Amino acid sequence: xxxxxxxxxxxPASEAYGEHREDLVVVIPRNQLPPDIEPEIGMQLQVREPxxxxxxxxxxxxxxxxxxxxxxxxxxxxxxxxxxEVVEIIRPS
Length: 93
Known about the structure:
- It is a single chain.
- Strands 2-5-4-3 form a four-stranded antiparallel beta sheet, with no helix packed on it. Strands 1-6 form a two-stranded antiparallel ribbon.
- Strand 4 and strand 5 form a beta hairpin.
- Helix content is 0%, strand content 39%.
- The protein is an all-beta fold.
- Its main location: cytoplasm.
- InterPro entries: PPIase_dom_sf (IPR046357).
- It catalyses: [protein]-peptidylproline (omega=180) = [protein]-peptidylproline (omega=0).
């Protein structure tokens, strides 16, 4: 690309953050959350496995009895489109 040139580039989900995996979505009893946490859609929580590994999950649904947690990356399953413009090219002297 040269200065002033623009281009749109799309990266398919499979080459970006991967496809959305249903096996990374779990429904847990609401009483498994700490009592001081009131779930909200979009809330991110850090979960620790018995092995000590931790990861981030997002609350995607809840009711009086259950909470749905999604461990997929928020952009999983989405194609990414970038609009690129070369503003300046700096060449080493």
